[in-house]
Amino acid sequence: MITVAVHNRDGKEIDSLKVDEAVLGGHVRIALLKQAIVMYHANKRVGTAATKSRGMVEGSTRKIYKQKGTGNARMGTVRTNIRRGGGVAFAKVARDFGKDMPKKQKKLARDSAILAKLQVGNVVVVDEIKFEQPRTKDFVKILGNLKIDRSCLVTINEPDQNLYKSARNIPKISVIKVSDLNAGDICNTQKMLFTKDAFLTVINKTKTADLPADDKK
Asked: C-alpha angle with apex 127: 124 to 129, nearest 5 degrees?
């Protein structure tokens, strides 16, 4: 069992939660985690780099001059890649670098990423984060109270525009919904900050997914 402290906005511990490692897969699946990270990085590649081949540039396909008898070196068309304005040899073409994984593997990779953060103490839980209006200064103060001074993924249960706007100008701080959590974003940050509701949602969803179909009803 892993014990996670619950803090208030001032950084004081007000409660604690116990997490069974079995709920998050029991152990960190390193190979699966790497596979997921490679997939997320590959899916971010644009893949639009392209150059013109000999068949794409303008120009006649006629040989510039006959093969023999002119005293010049042998030469093909004006489109050849060895002439200025000609096409590129082995031209690049636009391509899709995207990869995919089964849903169950994505979920296991996400759980392994969260478990890895829990095991090294890089998960912080706060009772709630709410703002009446966007205030970056107030959010920076909360992060300071929680001793978060590095990159952090703030995880919430429901969309909150005031929180999004309060965090968007803070370097290396991202806000994400629980339903959008993935191994790539988790591993890309040093710490994770959960609201209590969001953390319980992650644990309860995982428990529900592991139950037999009859027990979910």
From this structure: 90
pTM: 0.77
Say if residue 95's pLDDT is above 70: yes
- Residues 8-62 pLDDT 10s: 988 888 888 888 888 888 888 999 999 999 999 999 999 899 999 998 999 888 8
User: Are residues 63 and 114 located together in one domain of the fold?
Assistant: no
My answer on whether 32 and 75 are in the same domain is: no
The angle, 0 to 180 degrees and rounded to 10, between the axes of the packed helices 30-43 and 103-119 is 110
Both 34 and 135 in a single domain?
A: yes
Q: How far apart are alpha carbons 190 and 27 in whole angstroms?
A: 20
Q: Quick one: 38 and 50 in the same domain? A: no
Do 37 and 140 belong together in one domain?
yes
Distances (CA, A) of 22 to 16, 39, 158, 171, 203: 18, 25, 26, 34, 11
Spatial separation of the C-alpha atoms in residues 37 and 189, rounded to whole Å: 13
* Paired tokens of 51: 């150059």
- Rounded Cα distance between 206 and 197, Å, is 14
Q: For residue 15, give the nearest of 122, 93, 126, 105 by alpha carbon.
A: 126
Domain that holds residue 67: 46-96
Q: pLDDT, tens digit, for every residue of 177-214?
A: 998 999 999 999 999 999 999 999 888 865 545 544 45
